[in-house]
Amino acid sequence: MQTNRLVALILTATLALAGCAVPTAGSSASSSAATSSATAASSSSSNVSSQQQKDWSKARVSYLGPEGTYTQEACQLFFGGQGTYLPQEDVAASVKAVLDGTTDYAVIPQENTIGGPIAEYLDEVVTHDNIGIVGEVELPISQNLLTKPGADLAGIKTVYSHKQGIAQGSEWLKKNLPNAEVIEVASTAEGARMASEAQGNDCAAIGSAAAAGVYGLEVAADNIQMSSANKTRFYVLSTQEPSKEPASRMAFLASGKASDLGKLLEDVKSAGATVVTVHDRPRKTELGEYTYLVECSNMGFDAYDTLTKDNQAFVFRYLGSFDVR
Predict the structure, then answer these.
(1) What is the DSSP letter of 154?
(2) What pTM, to 2 d.p., does this model score?
(3) Are 61 and 41 in contact (CB under 8 A)?
(4) What b/e sequence results for 266-304 when a residue is b if at least 16 CB atoms lie within 10 Å of its CB, and e otherwise?
(5) Which CATH number is 184's domain given?
(6) How far apart are CA 240 and CA 245, in angstroms?
(7) Residues 183 and 159 sit within 8 Å (Cβ to Cβ)
């Protein structure tokens, strides 16, 4: 019964979000890069359409559980409600399930508008050499204060949520529940579950309306996040060979010195591509050396190949080309 309610809520959101636009191509600076970039741009629309029509019915997907997380919503959106979704205790377990063959894909949060990148989740991509990116979801996030039905807001003493939910709702909490104890848990849905199972009505959670439906809570205050533009970017990971086909996005890792990063990014721009995001993780060699996760739009594989040859100060790892839902 709870699962049916969740699916109905998520599929409604999926229909509303299905028309999201993908980034348009930028101009190119060299003929070879221009050819590659133009191919990527002209093919992205048909690739998204093809992805939407793909049969995912046999897909096994691991995600940060329990039932009712935003990550589950991202799964529903990317796979169109098809396949089997297997909730995991944490993101590391989600990725491990792909690595050991228990699942075919893992969907993991990567960064949020307000909370920023999530370092330990990025590390799951960086540290596993046989993990690649096959898709991305940009999900609008509406954080809500969830309580038991009839609970008095003034009586709330404890609030549970994932650290991103806490960060996104921190200003609201300071203003409306300044004396409440805020406890970080593994996911927003885990917080909702804990609030629902607590004795009395003095516990609450920050999470989705879908989670409220799953755990028998009600939305006591909606849209408590700091920004109405709040979104989370999710990666869809797999151990399959990373695609080199033209798509709306491409990602790669580049490990090297911070002093060489400027040239690398200039070369990306010269290839006619646009940098979507750059994240750094310590290389654990010496100060000033990092592994950069770089995501671009309007960049073909040939342009990436040229980039690696022109920037030999870095060690590269290709993560794949993919589309955004």
Answers:
(1) G
(2) 0.80
(3) no
(4) ebbebbbbbebebbbbebeeeeebbbbbbbbbbbbbbbb
(5) 3.40.190.10
(6) 14
(7) yes
Residue range of the domain that includes 251 = 2-19+27-141+231-322
User: Does residue 41 sit within a domain?
Assistant: yes
Burial of 79 (0-12, 13-18, 19+ CB in 10 A): buried
| Pair (33, 175) in one structural domain | no
Per-residue pLDDT tens over the stretch 59-95: 999 999 999 999 999 999 999 999 999 999 999 999 9
pLDDT of res. 25: 35
Q: Are residues 249 and 113 in the same domain?
A: yes
Structural contact between residues 274 and 305, judged by C-beta atoms closer than 8 angstroms = no
Q: Say yes or no: 14 and 102 in one domain.
A: yes
Do 100 and 181 share a domain, yes or no? no
Are residues 122 and 40 part of one domain? yes
Tally of structural domains, the chain: 2
- Residue-wise pLDDT for 231-266, tens only, equals 999 999 999 999 999 999 999 999 999 999 999 999
d(CA 308, CA 272): 15
What integer pLDDT is reported at residue 96 of this predicted model?
Answer: 98
Nearest alpha-carbon partner for 211 in 234, 236, 185, 230: 185
